[in-house]
Amino acid sequence: MDLPKFLLADNSNAPEDIFVLHTEFPRFIINLKDDEIEWFEDLTGENEEDIATELADLMDKAGIFYDEEMKQYE
To answer: Taking the model in full, what pTM does it have?
Structure first.
């Protein structure tokens, strides 16, 4: 199965939260309400500067993905 790079997620126990799941390395879920991130990968040993730059870019892309998805409901 080919998964999309980003998926929207929600949970009835957190109705005010907006989650975006990144399905490629490094896999994570971000709560766009407060930018809290849960990592599914162990990033120990990665080049900190490279990974920080990549992660900042992925977080921006997660927000852009969400905005584009919401435009479809307007």
So the answer is: 0.82
